Amino acid sequence: MYDINSELSFQALEFWVDLIRKSSSDDIVIYLVGNKSDLAIEDFNMRRVGKSSAIEFVNKYNLCHWTECSAKNNVNIKETFKSFYKSKFKD
Q1: Distances (CA, A) of 65 to 11, 44, 48, 62, 90
Q2: pLDDT of the chain along its 91 residues, tens only?
């Protein structure tokens, strides 16, 4: 998870993905979730990480899925967890 309004939090993702992959089994499912979308809706100028950058990251690191949400406003939270569950337990 990263803050879509913070380039620094997005830049740290490479470290976290590498750490997770080194510490986990091969069948690990990694979802990329951009949080705090409510702030970017309130003021578009707050957004620091574009959707295209997130999609590039997903493709570069072969992640399972990407989405944005707002924990504060409960936007796209349930859908994110449902999608994760379906991906992890699709068999």
Answers
A1: 18, 24, 20, 9, 14
A2: 999 999 999 999 999 999 999 998 777 888 899 999 887 777 778 889 999 999 999 999 999 889 999 988 888 889 888 887 776 666 5
